[in-house]
Amino acid sequence: MLRGGTKLGIFSKGKVVNKVVLIPVSEIVSNPAQPRTLFDLEELQSLSDSIRENGILQPLTVRLNARSQYELIAGERRLKAAQIAEMKEVPCIVVETDAKQSAVLALLENIQRQDLNFFEEAKAISNLIVEWNVTQEEASKRLGKAQSTIANKLRLLRLDEKQQMKILDAGLTERHARAILKLTDPGMIDKVIYYVGAKRLNVKQTEEYIDGILKEQQKSKRKYIHVVKDVRLFLNTINRAIETMQNAGVAAKAEKREQEDCIEYIVRIPIENYKQS
Fold first, then answer.
1. In sequence order, which residues have a C-beta less than 8 Å from that of residue 244 and are 6 or more positions away?
2. Which of 203, 256, 197 lies closest to 232, judged by CA?
3. Which residues form the catalytic set?
4. pTM of the full predicted structure?
5. Which residues of 244-271 are buried (b: 16+ CB within 10 A; e: fewer)?
6. Number of Cβ within a 10 Å radius of residue 138
7. Are 177 and 165 spatial neighbours (Cβ–Cβ below 8 Å)?
8. Per-residue pLDDT of the chain (277 residues; tens, 9 = 90+)
9. Where are the domains of the chain?
10. Are 102 and 73 in contact, with CB atoms under 8 Å apart?
């Protein structure tokens, strides 16, 4: 239990490193690379009650950024709970690190504590790669995950934010989400998320359900392709219809024009013949 620590004077910023010190809550700023975006209010209130009663059991981790501010690396949830508990100061460990390493540490801390949902984790890894110019291979080494695992997590971001929220609200898992990635039609994705959640399908059942949908879509696609490939049949049908009308005494004519991007087929039927019909 940590209720106290070394007091930091106004002129000692940056001089106390790797020691537990008390820092005013008002002087700590959030990490711009903080991967966690969703916080359960009930859990925060519960943690706040515990902190009010027992103090903070594990110090927060901060660094001095370029503006000489105490920037949070690890402990966002504890900081928010301390603010709810109206604590003036919190125990922290000040470490020397740059912004890039701070982003890595913030992600690692959340992953190790399993504080992130799988979409937040994917976004954090993507941010690490894009914002800090980290390769997938380097991210794999730093996070202790196989490169294929990193690639699979990044694929989750093909689902838009609304779809992600629907998946989380339905209580589906990362493996459910990966199965849903097989679908491309947004409307179908929404229907599948609702159905899988409502029926409480496990991952295997979900995969079988989606495979069935894809097979049906493939059948429809084949039928469509077959029809499109048989355009000549349509043209022959038109020609036979013209011949039939001509044999019946109708002065029908058809003219085919080949353009650069299409074929024009013009059919002319005299007005008097059309009115007589």
1. none
2. 256
3. 76
4. 0.56
5. ebeeeebebebeeeeeeeeeeeeeeeee
6. 16
7. no
8. 444 444 443 334 545 566 788 999 999 988 777 666 677 788 889 889 988 888 888 899 898 887 878 988 888 888 999 999 999 999 998 888 887 777 777 777 766 666 678 998 898 888 888 877 788 888 888 778 899 999 999 999 999 999 999 999 999 999 999 999 999 999 999 999 999 999 999 999 999 999 999 998 887 766 555 555 566 777 777 888 888 888 888 888 888 887 777 778 788 888 776 666 5
9. 6-116, 159-228, 231-276
10. yes
Q: Please report, to the nearest 10 degrees, the dihedral formed by the alpha carbons of residues 82, 85, 90, 93 taken in order.
A: -20
Q: 3-state class of 255 per DSSP?
A: strand
Architecture of domain 6-116: Alpha-Beta Complex (3.90)
* Upper half-sphere CA count for residue 65 (Cβ side, 13 Å): 19
User: What tokens appear for 221 in the block?
Assistant: 């696609």
